[in-house]
Amino acid sequence: AQSVTQLDSHVSVSEGTPVLLRCNYSSSYSPSLFWYVQHPNKGLQLLLKYTSAATLVKGINGFEAEFKKSETSFHLTKPSAHMSDAAEYFCVVSAAAGNKLTFGGGTRVLVKP
Amino acid sequence: GAVVSQHPSWVICKSGTSVKIECRSLDFQATTMFWYRQFPKQSLMLMATSNEGSKATYEQGVEKDKFLINHASLTLSTLTVTSAHPEDSSFYICSASLGPVETQYFGPGTRLLVL
Predict the structure, then answer these.
(1) pLDDT tens per residue across span A26-71
(2) Over 90: is that where the pLDDT of B113 sits?
(3) A82 touching chain B per CB within 8 A
C-alpha cells in the first residue's frame, strides 16, 4: 500500500520569495516520486521525478526536490517564485509494480505581486 | 516529445446519452494508458489502467459497464461514458506511458457536463 500526504492545501507567497511545498509519503516498495503541476483547466505537467538515483532532483522552471528516506519526505522548493508559478501542485508516488500512481491532495499556490 | 492529446476538450450532453473521449499519444507508442477522474478542487483518482490489446483493469468502485475503455492501438485509447447522468460530470484526464514502470505523460483533460 502507498499513500501521499501534502501537508498544506494552500500556500501563499510573494513574487521573488522562496516557495516550499511539503510532501510525505509511505510505500511498501522502493518508491518513485514525482511532482506535477496543473494550471487551471489544464492537464498535468511533470516538474521532476525521483527514481533512486541522486536524492536532490532538479526539475523544470527552477524547481527542485529532495528525497529524504529517513523522514519519508519529498519536499518541493523554488528559490524565487514567479507569477506564472500560481497553480495546483501534486506530489505523486508510484510503486514498482504496475506503475499505479497515488496522488496527494494537492497544494494550491498563490503568488502575490 | 511525449505529447498526449485528448478530444474533445469539453463536452455537454443530455442525461441518458453516451459520450466518447479519445486519448492519443502523438509522438510515442503507449503500451499502457490510464484514465483518471478529477472532481472540482480535488485530486486525481485512478479509474482504470489499459494495456494495448487487452481488457482494462478497473479500480475498486468504478463500474466497468458504465465506463467502457478501449485501447485498440498503441496510440489511441477511448473512454465511453454510457448512459451519462449529472453525477458523471467531472474532469477526465488520461495519461500514457511507454511501459508498466515508465513515466506517465498526461493529456490536457476533458471536461464533461451532463445536463
Answers:
(1) 987 778 899 999 988 778 899 999 987 788 999 999 999 999 999 9
(2) yes
(3) no
Going by C-alpha positions, the residue among A101, A68, A56 that lies closest to residue B93 is A101
Any residues with CB less than 8 A from the CB of B85 and at least 6 apart, and which? B15, B16, B114
CA-nearest of A82, A93, A86 to A35 is: A93
Residue with the larger pLDDT of the pair B14 and B2: B14
Q: Which residues between 33 and 62 in chain B have a beta carbon less than 8 angstroms from any beta carbon of chain A?
A: 34, 42-46, 49
> What SS3 string covers chain A?
CEEEEECCCEEEEECCCCEEECEEEEECCCCEEEEEEECCCCCEEEEEEECCCCCEEECHHHCEEEEECCCCEEEEEECCCCHHHCEEEEEEEECCCCCCEEECCCEEEEEEC
Q: Which residue has the higher pLDDT, A27 or A14?
A: A14
